[in-house]
């Protein structure tokens, strides 16, 4: 029997059961909708996994379609059930093999991510450690930027939201752009007037622009409103377009992408293609914490900072173990959802999220009465 099966660090119990739930929360945008450069939506779905062993329960989650919950039940639950809780990376490897023919990128990677986060949370709880102290952490906090600014917001709501983050001590904010590019000058002008010259402003086109359009707006964004970061100006699949913007765009305007990278190869393509100035990773999409640690090594080896995409309650712990973290996206939709479903979420302190060293694992406990009102999959928990 291998060391992974017998356990390490005193964790020798085996996983008893795996639960999968899904919850849906309507947006609070105008007419119940939110928009970015390429998508309109009216709700956000969280797929939640609970893994039980030794009288403790670990939780993990991802944001995606409810079908991800069925994927976990059909492909992954039996892989981890009955195995040692000692080595999440070992189970991550087994899950990766299991989904080879079912589809590894996309929903498959999101499913693995949710289970992997739950396994790390479980191990930390079995050891009565905060997750930040179980991981190979280099930091005790991660700087954040306020993120929202949807393209269908009125100017008043846009400036109230971004200005509110600055008032909370968050020195950088992001708004969505490029759905109707002709409106962006008015929107950016209003934001700059509301927050002043000092806070950093980021923009996110969500891949809405063509290459020359993106280059034109990159120059205007920087020259007229001092925008410092342009996220996904063109599609993440357009590596040549991203590289062109890195090479020909303003020197002080960074190009960022990576939120839709699911496997390590996706990140390698961005890095080797010299397609980003700052790499992004989403811990709920890229294979969970185990996948993120691989990506963190890649970014460090190529002298690139790594920025956290969303899921702040998990990312705050996970990105403390990233040697070159840049920022964590404090995303409006996910902050709303996590505060509704969990006790123990973190609030920005001095423009950063700091994991609580006094709470085991992720430090989260589910508020079941609130969660049940949002349930769309799984068995209610009494």
Envelope shape: globular
What is the terminal separation in angstroms? 38 Å
CATH class bucket of the largest domain: Alpha Beta
CATH architecture of the largest domain: Alpha-Beta Barrel
**Structural class by secondary-structure content:** alpha/beta
Bin the helical content: 25-40%
Which structural traits does this protein have?
382 residues, alpha/beta, Enolase-like, domain 1, 2 domains, 8-stranded parallel β-barrel
Task: Report on the architecture of this protein.
This protein is an alpha/beta fold and about 375 residues long. It folds into two domains: about 5-130 and about 365-375, Enolase-like, N-terminal domain (Enolase-like, domain 1), CATH 3.30.390.10; about 135-365, TIM Barrel. About 40% of the residues lie in helices and about 20% in strands. The chain has helices at about 5, 65-80, 90-100, 105-125, 130-135, 155-165, 185-195, 210-225, 240-250, 265-270, 290-300, 310-320, 330-340, 370, and strands spanning about 15-25, 35, 40, 45-55, 55-65, 140-150, 170-175, 200-205, 225-230, 255, 280, 305-310, 325-330, 340-345, 350-355, 365, 375. Strands 6-7-8-9-10-11-12-13 form an eight-stranded parallel beta barrel, surrounded by seven helices. Strands 5-4-1-17 form a four-stranded antiparallel sheet. Strand 9, helix 9 (about 240-250) and strand 10 form a beta-alpha-beta unit. Helix 3 runs antiparallel to helix 4 and helix 6 (about 155-165) packs parallel to helix 7. The protein starts with a helix and ends in a 5-residue tail after the last strand.
């Amino acid at each position: 029997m291998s060391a992974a099966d017998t356990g390490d660090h005193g964790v020798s119990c085996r996983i008893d059961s795996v639960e999968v739930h899904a919850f849906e929360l309507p947006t609070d945008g105008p007419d119940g909708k939110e928009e970015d450069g390429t998508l309109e939506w009216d709700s956000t779905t969280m797929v939640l996994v609970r893994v039980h062993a030794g009288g403790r329960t670990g939780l993990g989650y991802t944001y995606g379609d409810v079908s991800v919950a069925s994927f976990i039940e059909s492909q992954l639950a039996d892989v981890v059930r009955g195995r040692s809780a000692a080595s999440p990376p070992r189970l991550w490897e087994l899950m990766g093999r299991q989904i080879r023919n079912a589809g590894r990128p996309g929903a498959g990677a999101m499913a693995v991510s949710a289970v992997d986060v739950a396994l790390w949370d479980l191990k930390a709880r079995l050891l009565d450690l905060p997750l930040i102290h179980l991981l190979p952490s280099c930091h005790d906090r991660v700087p954040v930027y306020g993120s929202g600014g949807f393209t269908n917001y009125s100017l008043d709501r846009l400036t109230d939201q971004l200005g509110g983050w600055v008032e909370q001590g968050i020195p950088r904010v992001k708004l969505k752009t490029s759905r109707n590019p002709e409106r962006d000058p008015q929107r950016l002008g209003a934001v700059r007037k509301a927050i002043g010259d000092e806070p950093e402003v980021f923009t996110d086109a969500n891949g809405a622009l063509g290459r020359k359009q993106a280059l034109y707006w990159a120059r205007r964004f920087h020259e007229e409103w001092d925008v410092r970061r342009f996220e996904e100006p063109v599609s993440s699949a357009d590596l040549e377009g991203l590289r062109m913007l890195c090479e020909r765009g303003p020197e002080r305007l960074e190009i960022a992408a990576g939120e839709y990278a699911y496997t390590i190869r996706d990140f390698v393509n961005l890095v080797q293609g010299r397609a980003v100035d700052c790499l992004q990773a989403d811990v709920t999409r890229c294979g969970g914490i185990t996948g993120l640690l691989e990506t963190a090594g890649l970014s460090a080896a190529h002298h690139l900072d790594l920025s956290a995409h969303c899921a702040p309650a998990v990312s705050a712990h996970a990105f403390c173990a990233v040697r070159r973290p840049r920022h964590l996206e404090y995303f409006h939709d996910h902050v709303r959802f996590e505060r509704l479903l969990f006790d123990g979420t973190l609030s920005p302190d001095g423009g950063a999220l700091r994991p609580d060293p006094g709470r085991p694992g992720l430090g989260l406990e589910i508020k079941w009465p609130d969660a049940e009102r949002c349930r769309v999959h799984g068995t209610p928990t009494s």
